[in-house]
Amino acid sequence: INHIVRNGLIDLQYKARMIARQADGILNRCKEMEAALDKVEEDNPTDNERSVSV
Hints:
The chain is mainly alpha-helical. It has two helices and no strands.
């Protein structure tokens, strides 16, 4: 019985690592999108920001 439980735990650890890796990828994409959005906002200031910067 112990080896069945151990194999189950090893499988869960593997799946958890896969999920963590996917989450890392998603987080990195979010950061890239946020940076791109910041650049768009810098290149296209809103009316309020434009009036302040003038």
